[in-house]
Amino acid sequence: MCSRIIQCSKKRIIMAKGISSHSLKVLSWNIDGLDGKDIQDRTESVCDFIAANQPDVVYLQEVVSKTMGIIGSKLDSSYEGYTAHSPPAHYYPAILVRKSSIQVQGSLECLNFPHSCMGRHLLQLPVKFSDLEIQLMTSHLESMKDYGRERKDQLRSAFEIMTKLQASKICIFGGDLNLRDNEVRNVGLPKKTVDVWEACGSVEEEKYTWDVSANDNLNWPYGNKPKLRFDRVYLSPSDGKLRPKSFSLVGKERLPRCGRFPSDHWGLWMEFGVETQ
Questions:
Q1: Which position among 32, 41, 153, 176 bears the catalytic label?
Q2: In terms of C-beta density within 10 A (0-12 exposed, 13-18 middle, 19 or more buried), how is residue 192 classed?
Q3: Mean pLDDT value across the chain
Q4: pTM value surpassing 0.85
Q5: The pLDDT of residue 1 is above 70
Q6: End-to-end CA distance of the chain, in Å?
Q7: In b/e form, how buried is each residue of 53-81, taking b as 16+ CB within 10 angstroms?
Q8: Does the active-site annotation cover 176?
Q9: Is-contact 211 220, C-beta < 8 A?
Q10: Which phi and psi (to 5°) does residue 150 adopt?
């Protein structure tokens, strides 16, 4: 069940032969609704970015009731939004789809991770883009280093769903997954599944999505300034008709009114080319 709601940095583009110029545009962003400071200004800036750049699909994490209301008031005419009907926590993920380019093919599915102590869950929405059947999947996996075991179990569950659907659908799974590289290696990347950042060249400047050394929204009190690639997006099957074409981080400009960034996470902007052969 679901409840309805409702300039980017230079792209480094990898273009393969037989790929159409017609692209699926995807944005994934933890918008930090848990930080109440400047929440109106910050959330409106995310909405303004979406309205200006018109992604076909948007994955959001750390949405709260206040930000959901802002998103609905700003984007309702162009986007359909989906969240869990009764989220197990007061902050949650959401999927937005652009009405003019995405056809929703069925109901939203919400898989609650049974051993999560943070109310984490996986959203799935079947859609159609052009003539492609796509399963949209987003989550905010268990946070913090000490919860790595549960986080890996959650990742494993999502990968199992992607593997089962490979023969019939394209899957795009991503969000604030809180992942460390060793955790992904431990779980194992399924066959015919790619990390979109890696598929677009593993560009170092576009790597770290949570970077306290560059983003001071948190007022980090410690001497060390960590930077991590918490936010990731995976595509399956990698040899299907949808291919990663570009990847970049967005939200790196301070907002003029409050002097802060839209979130403590950078957003992920991706474009996927449609294979024509």
A1: 176
A2: middle
A3: 92
A4: yes
A5: no
A6: 37
A7: eebbbbbbbbbbeebbebbeebbeeebbb
A8: yes
A9: no
A10: -65, -40
